[in-house]
Amino acid sequence: MTSPQEELLPGTRRALLHRIAVAQREGRAPSLVAAVVRDGRAVWSGARTSVEGLVPDGDVQYRIGSITKTFTAVLVLRLRDEGLLDLADPLEKHLPGTGVGEVTLVDLLAHRAGLAAETPGPWWERTPGSLRPGLADVLGERPLVHPVGRRFHYSNPGYALLGTLVEKLRGAPWADVLRREVLDPLGLHRTTVEPVAPHAGGWAVHPWADVMQPEPLENLGVMAPAGQLWSTIGDLARFAAFLAAGDERVLSAESVREMRTPAAPAEAADVADGYAYGLGLELRHQQGRAFVGHTGSLPGFLACLTMSLADDVGAVVLANCTSGPAPFTVAADLVRIVAEAEPRVPRPGGRSTRPIPPCSTWWASGTGDVRLRAAAVGRRAARAGTSLREGTTLAFPSGRGQRLGRARGLLRRGGAAARATPGRHGQPPRPGLVRVHPAAVRGGRSVARRRGRGGVAGPPVARRAPDVREWPCFT
Questions:
Q1: Structure pTM?
Q2: What is the DSSP letter of 117?
Q3: Is 439 buried (19+), middle (13-18) or exposed (0-12) by CB count in 10 A?
Q4: What is d(CA 193, CA 182) in angstroms, rounded to the nearest whole number?
Q5: For residues 251-283, b (16+ Cβ closer than 10 Å) or e, as one string?
Q6: How confident is the model at residue 384 (pLDDT cuts 50, 70, 90)?
C-alpha cells in the first residue's frame, strides 16, 4: 500500500531542481527558492544561489509584495461571513469621507472600482510610508480613472482602502488583526510585516554587467495591506493549502471557493492571455491548466504562489531581485512537472451501497424533449427532503417553442405538485426550479402525468427523451 504523502520520486525531484537552477541562472537572481505542495502539504523544496556556500533554506524570509493582497482579502471575507458587512455595500457605508464612497467592497476586491493603479507623488514602493499618512495622500485629487464597476483595472490604492476598512471595523491595526485572525491560526509564524532574521536582502541586478545594487526596504504605511508582508516558502506552502481547502478557524471552504471565482470584467487582452481576477486572487490558464494564486513584486523581490486545483499541486517561488526570473512561469512549470511525472492516483472505487442523498433542485431548458437524471449531490442538497436516487430519470416534452418551465403542475405524487420555473438557456443551475420524484418512473421509461379535462389527473404518458441534459443539484 502506498501513501499519498510519500515524497516525490528522484527523477521528479531532479527535474524540479533543474527548473529552478535554469531560472536562477538565466534570470541572474542572487537567490531563488521554491516549494511544491501536494495533498495539502509541502512535498519538495529547493534553492539556488549565486553566492557559493550561502544557500537559503525554507526558513529564510523574502518580501512577497502583492501576495499580501490575498491576505487582506481573507480579512474582508471574514468580516462578511460574520455579518459585519456585505460585499455589495458601498464603501461610504463603512468608511465615510474617502471621496470614492460609491464604489462597492467587491469592486475594490476585484480591482473593478475604477481607481488609479498607483498613488500620486513619489513612487510608494521606494519611499517611506510616512510621506502618505492618510487616505487622501493615497488617492489624490482624481482617484477615479474609469467608470466604477465597468472594467478590470489593477489598483494598489484600492487595497489600502480595504486595509483601512478592516482597521475601522475591528478597532485595531491591520497588522494586529492579520496576526490574530489569519497568521496565528494557520501557523504562519514566519510571515511578518517587518523582516525578521534570517531574511534575504533585496537587490537590483544590472542587466548587462555583474553588478548588484541594494534596493530600499521601506515600511509602506497606509499602503501596507497592498504589499508589505515578508514570508517563507514554508509558510506560503501552508497558505496555499488553506486557499485550496479552507480552514474553519479562518475561512470556510465555500468562502475560499468564492475568492477563486472570477469577479472582474475581463479585458480582451486578458482573455487572450488566459487571465482573470477573483476576490484577491489571480486566475490564469496556461497550456491547458487552470491556475489560481497571486504574484508579487517590490523593489528587490519577486514572488509567486499558484495552484492547479485539478492536479492538487501548487508551487511557491521567491527571488531577491527586482527583475529577472518570471516567477509565475517558473511556478507553473513546477506544477506541470509534478502533475505529469506523478499524476494523482484516484482512490479505490466501487459501487456504493449507500443511497445518493436526496435532491430537489434541477434546471434545464430547450425546445426538445428533456430528461433529468439524478447525480451525486453535496451536503447542502442532502437537506432538500425528497427521495430521488441516482439513475432515476424523468422526461417531459417541452414542445415547440416551449421551455421546461412550462411543465409546472404536470407531475404528481401523493397530491404534492412538483415545481418548475422557466429558465434561460445557458444560465447555470439556480435553486428551487424543478422537483421530480422516482414514482414518476414506470418500466424503465420516463413518465409524466398530465391533467385531464376538468382538472382531473389523466393517465401516465410515457415519453422517451432523446435530448439528455444532466445538471448537478443546488439548493
A1: 0.74
A2: S
A3: middle
A4: 13
A5: beeebbebbbeebbebeeeeeeeebbbbbbbbb
A6: very low
Cα gap 289→110, rounded to integer Å: 22
Give residue-wise pLDDT tens across range 23-64.
999 999 999 999 999 999 999 999 999 877 678 999 999 999
CA distances from 228 to 64, 163, 191, 301 (A): 8, 11, 11, 12
Whether the ω angle into residue 157 lies within 30 degrees of 0, i.e. cis, is no
Question: Which residues lie across from 297 on neighbouring strands?
Answer: 302
- In eight-state DSSP terms, residue 191 is -
Distance CA(306)–CA(171), nearest Å, equals 32
Beta strands in 190-312 (DSSP E): 203-205, 212-214, 230-231, 275-277, 282-286, 289-298, 301-308
C-alpha cell at 436: 421530480
* CA dist., res. 68 & res. 156, Å (int): 11
The answer for residues whose C-beta is within 8 angstroms of residue 374's C-beta and 6 or more apart is 356, 359, 388, 389, 390, 391, 392, 473
Q: Find out whether 223 and 119 touch, Cβ atoms under 8 Å.
A: yes
Task: Record the cell numbers describing residue 131, joined without a space.
Answer: 510621506
In the chain, what percentage of residues exceed pLDDT 70? 72
User: Which pLDDT tens digit goes with each residue over 274-309?
Assistant: 899 999 999 999 889 999 999 999 999 999 999 999
The Cβ-side half-sphere exposure at 346, using a 13 Å CA radius, reads: 3
Q: Which residues contact 307 (CB under 8 A, 6 or more apart)?
A: 37, 240, 243, 244, 291, 292, 293, 313, 314, 315, 335
Cα–Cα distances (Å) from 39 to 188, 212, 289, 332, 391, in that order, read 18, 39, 18, 17, 32
